[in-house]
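Thread: "does anyone have the structure for this chain?"

Original post by V.I.:
We have the sequence but no experimental structure in hand. Need at least a predicted one for the grant figures.
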Amino acid sequence: MPEKLTEWIREANRILIFTGAGISTPSGIPAFRGAGGIWTTRQPVLYQDFMTKESARTEYWQYKLELWEEHGDAQPNIIHDSIVDLEKAGKVEMIVTQNVDGLHLAAGTSRDLLVEVHGNGTLVECQSCGLKESAQPSFEKFKNEGTCPICKCGGYLKPATISFGQNLKEEDLRRAQKAANWCDLVIALGSTLSVSPANTIPLIAAQEGTPYIIINRDETDHDDLTQVTLRLTGNVENLFPPAVKEVL
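Reply from O.Q.:
Generated one for you, tokens below.
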């Protein structure tokens, strides 16, 4: 176990944890980027196309249905549990996740300490009135009828995730940026740190001199930055949970 990682976690009291797809692969959910990632075999549907073309909405819902059927029963793993353990110990300022699988909440992370910056795929959201509800009835309707779900108001229902070309929620960015300004340690877990503007959040802290640790199996876009305090290469589940256990 890397001693430096343990030391930083032990000394910190306001940790900002930034998570990406690499923390959910042990739960059976494939990554989007990197070797074998979803975007290496499939082109994403742009938000503008979803809003203007029935064919794009159908393609989008078909893709999301496939993911739901394959991974909808995924459960949190030891990484999610370790993050919850840190929260219970009073050492977490905020968890900012790029993941849309809802596994942080399923593991027990407090909603007020979580920013799902790219949304939550276990919900659907009306693109007109903003209604949010469980995604399961919409997936079942699409599977059985083959027609894209519509809200009672007549607006298009869409899984409550941020699509390519869709703006992030301003309130989510505000909360994440506030936590980055206040934290005393930032740890990026399982992210290639390649998607903007989410990948700027750890740097807000690091540029103020806050220690910045990256743990990821593959290369990240931040690896060569001078603000990185510690870079650990390997599977997150083999590095992060043992360090948390040692501290607690």
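V.I.: this helps a lot. The chain has two domains: 1-29+76-118+168-248, 36-73+121-161.
O.Q.: and The domain at 1-29+76-118+168-248 is CATH 3.40.50.1220 (Rossmann fold).
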